[in-house]
Specification:
- The protein is an alpha/beta fold and 211 residues long.
- The protein is 49% helix and 16% strand.
- The chain contains ten helices and eight strands.
- The chain has helices spanning 18-32, 41-47, 52-59, 65-86, 94-102, 117-125, 137-140, 144-154, 167-176, 203-210; strands spanning 4-8, 15-16, 89-90, 106-111, 131-136, 159-164, 180-183, 196-197.
- Strands 5-4-1-6-7-8 form a six-stranded parallel sheet, sandwiched between helices. Strands 2-3 form a two-stranded antiparallel ribbon.
- The longest helix is centred in the middle third of the chain and has 22 residues, at 65-86.
């Protein structure tokens, strides 16, 4: 049984859904809070990778916490349904690369997103066949390092690597005790020296070098 795993971040690593998320959130905010407010793609890209409570705090600092969390809940619910129907922007060669990697490794996803977000991605593209397990902040309120560690332990992984695109991803991976691969095509930067991929397809050759 295969026990070497690749654990993926979502946003900036597997896809870019910022434009679709911004459109969805603007629709909810206009309906329930402020008809003049437009949530921009750039705003969403700037907060992707943060936990959902921190995103709401950043985008709606003028609201008291109870109102902010209620608005966040409605935005996330609409977002999941919107992405389930419309999808986002996959990075080039993603499906072919996942199919090739699945021949040698078990594939997983750990994200700081809300519950249902990863499922919307998997359902829209039919990618559930590639991934053995998923975990996210919305399921349990845990930080990414804890969820990486939890997923690796419950799947009995003897070797695993995390693929992400931000410094926060790197820090969480180190805290979880795993090696890290930097997706340089994503949203963020990583200051430490680490294996790098400049496109999704390069992960195939980099994995062979690591393991």
């Amino acid at each position: 049984m295969k026990r070497t795993g690749i654990i993926f971040d979502m946003d900036g690593t597997l896809w870019d859904s910022a434009e679709e998320v911004a459109r969805s959130w603007t629709r909810v905010v206009n309906s329930e809070y402020d008809t003049e407010r437009i949530i921009t793609t750039e705003e969403i890209q700037g907060v992707m990778g943060k936990t959902m409570d921190k995103i709401a705090e950043f985008l709606f600092p003028e609201l008291e916490e109870p109102a902010r969390l209620t608005l966040l809940e409605h935005c996330c619910r609409d977002e999941n349904e919107y992405l389930r129907v419309h999808g986002g922007r996959l990075y080039p060669d993603l499906e072919e690369t996942l199919a090739e990697l699945k021949k040698e490794y078990e594939l997983y996803i750990v994200s700081n997103c809300q519950s249902g977000y990863i499922e919307a991605f998997l359902e829209h593209y039919g990618f559930g066949k590639f991934f053995s397990d998923i975990e996210c902040f919305g399921n349990n309120g845990l930080q990414k390092s804890d969820n990486i560690r939890r997923l690796a332990e419950r799947n009995g992984l003897t070797k695993a690597v995390y693929v992400g695109d931000t410094q926060g991803d790197y820090d969480a991976t180190v805290a979880a005790g795993l090696p890290f691969i930097y997706a340089a095509y994503g949203f963020g930067t990583v200051v430490q020296k680490t294996p790098v991929i400049c496109c999704v397809k390069e992960l195939i050759s980099v994995m062979k070098e690591i393991f």
